[in-house]
């Protein structure tokens, strides 16, 4: 028998209907209108939640890795760091994501990849995090942690 949790009043357990999370991640390609449309479509498709990812790329990567040339047909910048930067939403845009999710009535989940993003997620109104394997001990040590949802089997 598995556990039981509530996410925004919705039971998640072995005995409850499937809880559907639409993984948006970085698929918005740094475009706020695309991100907002993905939230609306996820709601129309009856998803229970949408999940984004947030990174402070300069905090997350070494300077050498950040500055590494990234010559690829799908590159959004000449270095890997600039490529990743182009795919991120800024704080104002993430606030729009939070407002859109609230307005359409879908739970917003986020995977912060570093301490800065964990703090900004919290201040922007993200209600739940999905844990990432990346530097998590540092994030939880800050004491800025909202409820954390961790999936396992």
- What integer is the average pLDDT? 80
- In this structure, how is the largest beta sheet organized? 5 strands, parallel
The tally of beta strands, per DSSP, is 7
**Largest beta sheet: what is the strand line-up?**
3-4-5-6-7
Number of helices in the DSSP assignment:
7
Order of helices and strands: EEEHEHHHHEHEHE
The 3D shape can be described as elongated
**What is the CA-atom radius of gyration, in angstroms?**
16 Å
Q: How far is the N terminus from the C terminus?
A: 12 Å
Residue runs with pLDDT of under 50 for 5 or more positions? 128-142
Helix/strand class: alpha/beta
Share of helical residues: 25-40%
> Beta-strand level of the residues, as a percent range?
15-25%
Description:
By secondary structure, the chain is an alpha/beta fold. Helix content is 38%, strand content 20%. It has 7 helices and 7 strands. The chain has helices at residues 32-44, 57-60, 63-66, 80-86, 91-104, 115-124, 136-141, and strands spanning 4-7, 10-13, 21-25, 49-54, 107-112, 128-130, 148-149. A 5-stranded parallel sheet has the order 3-4-5-6-7, with helices on one face. The chain has a two-stranded antiparallel ribbon with strand order 1-2. Helix 6 (115-124) links the parallel strand 5 and strand 6 (128-130). It starts with a strand and ends with a strand.
């Amino acid at each position: 028998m598995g556990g039981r949790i509530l996410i925004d009043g919705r039971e998640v357990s072995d005995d409850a209907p499937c809880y559907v999370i639409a993984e948006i991640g970085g698929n918005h390609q740094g475009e706020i209108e695309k991100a907002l449309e993905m939230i609306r479509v996820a709601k129309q498709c009856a998803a229970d939640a949408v999940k984004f990812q947030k990174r402070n790329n300069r905090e997350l990567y070494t300077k050498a890795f950040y500055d590494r040339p990234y010559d690829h047909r799908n590159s959004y910048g000449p270095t890997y760091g600039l490529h990743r930067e182009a795919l991120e939403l800024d704080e104002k845009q993430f606030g729009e994501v939070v407002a859109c999710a609230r307005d359409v009535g879908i739970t917003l989940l986020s995977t912060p990849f570093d301490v800065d993003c964990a703090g900004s997620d919290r201040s922007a109104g993200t209600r739940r995090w999905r844990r990432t394997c990346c530097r998590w001990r540092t994030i939880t040590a800050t004491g800025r942690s909202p409820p954390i949802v961790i999936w396992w089997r």
